[in-house]
Amino acid sequence: MTPQRRLVLDAVSSLGHATPDEVLVRVREQASGVNASTIYRSLELLEELGLVRHSHLGSGPSTWHAASHSGHLHLVCRSCGSVTEVDVSLAADLVGRLERDTGFKSDMEHFGVQGTCADCLAAARDA
Amino acid sequence: MTPQRRLVLDAVSSLGHATPDEVLVRVREQASGVNASTIYRSLELLEELGLVRHSHLGSGPSTWHAASHSGHLHLVCRSCGSVTEVDVSLAADLVGRLERDTGFKSDMEHFGVQGTCADCLAAARDA
DNA sequence: CTTACTGCAAATATTTTGCATTTGG
DNA sequence: CCAAATGCAAAATATTTGCAGTAAG
Fold first, then answer.
1. DSSP class of B90
2. Which positions in chain A touch B98 (Cβ < 8 Å)?
3. Which residue is closest, via its CA, to the C1' of D16?
4. Residue A85: which region, alpha, beta or left (left: phi > 0; alpha: psi -120 to 50)?
5. pLDDT above 70 as % of chain B
6. What is the pLDDT of residues B27-38, one digit of tens each?
């Protein structure tokens, strides 16, 4: 565990859902010389070690979070970009049915669920 | 509706889930001079017109399909890359619960569900 | 020492944009 | 003719890779 890798892990842990670029910015607040490729390589390594995970929440870059911070679905609002977390158990029904019907074992955490959040729906109603 | 746009629509319709690059290749079989930027611009326009849609099935480029060909979830196998379609109604339970609990209105079609397909699970068991 | 890690620069891959040319109404 | 669409080239974005220098065991 090098200093750079520790900084990457700390950044991911404190940022929540961070893109590699956001991690880079945070890491550089602590150590200015760190390069983007080190971020990518560290994230990959930390994922192999099971310390962090990545998810695809939208069309942009993937986001990373600490492995300890898992067990939830990501609800991604297309309108305002907000990301809401809900317990992954809410999808247990769907996951179970998919497995029974097609034999497919789903990982609902890896991708975000796109849609529109309550606030944006309300704003659209008011407009 | 220009000749290029018609070719793009035809390509999307016949290819199923195609990336912009796959659409380009198909279009060039009919008209060799077509440029990639025309593909992107045509897809965008056709989506505004409601004739095609795009989904994010994995970490790579988005894929496009005819609007007539919708109403299903995409089950994307991480292991072999296969894409299985199942009726979107299977997710009605989850969608309803998310809306009731958090006010979030989900579009389950827009993102693929990652996981492992039955074949790859079987292969892993045999190995 | 020597193996592994890092920074740097360049290469990839994907998508977007500006602009001159062409096309179709 | 005029407005819109296209092709082309370059820019923008995101990520990966080769390589040489650095650092830690």
1. G
2. 75, 86, 90, 113, 115
3. A37
4. beta
5. 100
6. 999 998 999 999
